[in-house]
Amino acid sequence: MNSKLFVALQRLCPQHLLSRAAYWVAESPSQRFNQAFIKWFIKKYDVNMSEAEHPDPKDYVHFNDFFTRALKEGARPIAEDPAHLVSPADGKISQMGDIEHGQVFQAKGHHFSLCELIGGDFELAQQFNNGHFATIYLSPRDYHRVHMPFAGELEQMIYVPGHLFSVNDATTEALPNLFSRNERVVCVFKTDFGPMIVVLVGAMIVASIETVWTGLVTPPRRRLQRRSYTQEANQPIKLAKGAELGRFKLGSTAIVLLPEQAAQWLPELSAGCPVTMGEAIATRSERPEKPE
């Protein structure tokens, strides 16, 4: 289908209603329906069930249980080098590079505002000006849990309401400001090298986004919400490198944001490269020692 026509059809359809309907179908307790749908999905998308903690489709109570399946222990080894940041998810690198003049590269001819992406927080955006970004697209066949690129302490979570356009290649290349239009959850962490943000971007048919500290995030009232998790709020949450952060119920995109000079993306990686969760994607920059 022509990409412009595909985007036009998405504009016309009731995105949130369709996605919520998909949620209820995916949570259906009907064993007959679930088993048939799960088996069809595995065959259609060539899902590798040998690495799943429960490889038998009969072990899943509904489709979302299967879609957010855990993997066997050791299936995704975490890069051990303490200088390495790792991919937060299985998928394909959509784009990666530097944040220039407050703009993040989306696709040829398209950039989007960093400040808009994170919910309009100008002071927070300033910490990432001239920084670095990596956008990772999760396809239907991928493992759909999102993990920590580096150890950090959660400082705040920002829910940003928005559309639910598809995030596939056709839409990414045709629709300006895609990732700053769609519903998303912005997770802000404090790390040894400074701030780090992981953005979980919703998409068409993505019925919900969950985090390990709140469960289901999408609120009944679709308005921007911020929640502090600093020590002052008496809710410190510390997560190790590779620890689970959240999950998508149906596929989408994760965006990692790093401050200027915090790290360097590995030179062998570029747009289109497949990655797996736990694989090294960047090396921390050496921070000059402060004179005594």
UniProtKB/TrEMBL annotation:
Tree of life domain: Bacteria
GO CC annotation terms, alphabetical: plasma membrane
BP term (GO), one: phosphatidylethanolamine biosynthetic process
Top EC category: lyase
Modification Pyruvic acid (Ser), positions: S252
Cofactor(s) required, per the database record: pyruvate
Catalytic activity reported: a 1,2-diacyl-sn-glycero-3-phospho-L-serine + H(+) = a 1,2-diacyl-sn-glycero-3-phosphoethanolamine + CO2
Post-translational modification: Is synthesized initially as an inactive proenzyme. Formation of the active enzyme involves a self-maturation process in which the active site pyruvoyl group is generated from an internal serine residue via an autocatalytic post-translational modification. Two non-identical subunits are generated from the proenzyme in this reaction, and the pyruvate is formed at the N-terminus of the alpha chain, which is derived from the carboxyl end of the proenzyme.
Site feature: Cleavage (non-hydrolytic): G251, S252
Keyword Protein biosynthesis: no
Database matches in Pfam families: PS_Dcarbxylase
Primary residence: membrane
InterPro entries given in the database record: PS_Dcarbxylase (IPR003817), PSD-B (IPR033177), PSD_type1_pro (IPR033178)
Note describing how the cofactor binds: Binds 1 pyruvoyl group covalently per subunit.
Phosphoprotein recorded as keyword: no
MF annotations from Gene Ontology: phosphatidylserine decarboxylase activity
Transmembrane stretches, start-end: 193-217
UniProt keyword terms in alphabetical order: Cell membrane, Decarboxylase, Lipid biosynthesis, Lipid metabolism, Lyase, Membrane, Phospholipid biosynthesis, Phospholipid metabolism, Pyruvate, Transmembrane, Transmembrane helix, Zymogen
Function: Catalyzes the formation of phosphatidylethanolamine (PtdEtn) from phosphatidylserine (PtdSer).
The protein, known as: Phosphatidylserine decarboxylase proenzyme
Organism of origin: Zooshikella ganghwensis
